[in-house]
Prior knowledge:
The chain is α/β, with parallel strands linked by helices. The chain has 17 helices and 17 strands. Strands 7-8-10-9-13-17-14-15 form an eight-stranded mixed sheet, with helices on both faces. α10 packs antiparallel against α13 and α12 packs across α17.
Amino acid sequence: MGSLLSEKYKESVNRITQVTGMPNSRTIAALDHLLICVPSKPPAAVWRQVPQGAKVRALMKRRTEGSVPAITTRAANERQTGIAIGTLDADASAFEQLCFARKLIESALSGKAGAMGLWVLGFEEREAEVIAQRLAAAALAIAFPLADFKSKPQPPRIRSIRLLGFDRKLDLRRVIAEARGNNLARWLTALPANKLHAAAYIDLLKELAGEHGWEFRKYGVSELERLGAGAFLAVAQGNADDNAAIVRLRYRANGKSAAPDLSLVGKGIIFDTGGTNLKPFPAMMDMHIDMGGSAVAVGTLLAISELALPKSVDCWVAITENRTGPTAYKPQDVVTALNGKTVQVIHTDAEGRMALADTLTLASRGKPGLVVDYATLTGACITALTRRYSGVFTNRPDLHPVLKHAGRDSGERVWPFPADKEFLAELKSDTADISQCTPDAGGDHILAAAFLSEFVEDGVPWIHVDLSAAKRKGGLGHIPTEITGFGVRFTLHLLLDSEMPQVPDLHY
């Protein structure tokens, strides 16, 4: 089959040009859309810089409070460049700024796709740079098309993005790397399960590894059987073939072969029927996105690679379906996981923690400085947080404030939950070392994390992200699509901007 990373993916808008200095009439005349961000109470000097400033200032007096954009008009040039002006409080949170950026940019999309200019005016220099970076992030997300299989190609939403008005060119490498990682995560997650089946997913990861210089290693069913990965294989045994696998992608800066500073782990359930405990129709409709955690792990690896960060990173992807049928695993089965623990199966739709258990053991046996796993794991986390936040858990409670701050500063907000050993009392089994879950599912997001913690090797710091915000109708923050790719931006902020107690030598 052809590559699932189609030309549409590879040729999408993924860079931003910059025009320094005050934009002149020629610069503006080359744009189809000019989007201008000004403070809620802009200084008078702003109106002397804006095209048709007196007219715009008069229109602003009639604006509806809180509307984005505040006003729209057109420039008096041959192209009739569309102008949209949005007002923003300087003390708005990162999430609020990203939401604003998406609304402002989407306001231009009712017209034809074309050249878009972004201009931030009237703010202090550092504030203006941050706002411009967030506008750029939103523009890159909105310009990116998710995969579709329509017989007629869909026209692009945005053809080019230009950042205007700064005296010097801003360093946008991180913005672009985060956007590419998020775009890849969303692309993969949106693919239908008959396109991104296990064999195709493995081939796609091998293709990515070749393009980006990553080492590729596949642990197939036969090798996993020899290793004793019974928890993962319990889920995989209901598949129609033996294409399930755990894949390791390995990034090493400057070719170093050192032990990993970071291991990323992703749940890659490419379709989840619920298994023997079959899901009802409404709950099964979007189960092709149950591999979203693995997509976030791979997207994060891509962003790290694009930035050429000087560290060693492994990415582990657990790829299987969760099928029903005569060979599928069943409630009350007892299986032996890779670390030797026996697991009593309670509910076959709690398959994600089974697949992750052995993958976490493989990842943590390398003694990385930190393990981060991503999974669309529990409905309980959605119930607790809605789809606006994701839940985070860790075996290092000192990281709770760090995780919250990384979520706040990235605009991908998270909320920490406990995963203490005391919760293991709820998972006590009479027939095995541990129960997979409980029949009543009370606090299942916490119990799932407590279960996973038992498969992380001693002494290895670990963070689990339950992706309750992986999907949200209407998008989230600067992301316009229902599939959000939540986690890439959060992780980059965690790695690059956070103080990490008890996790030595992790800073990039």
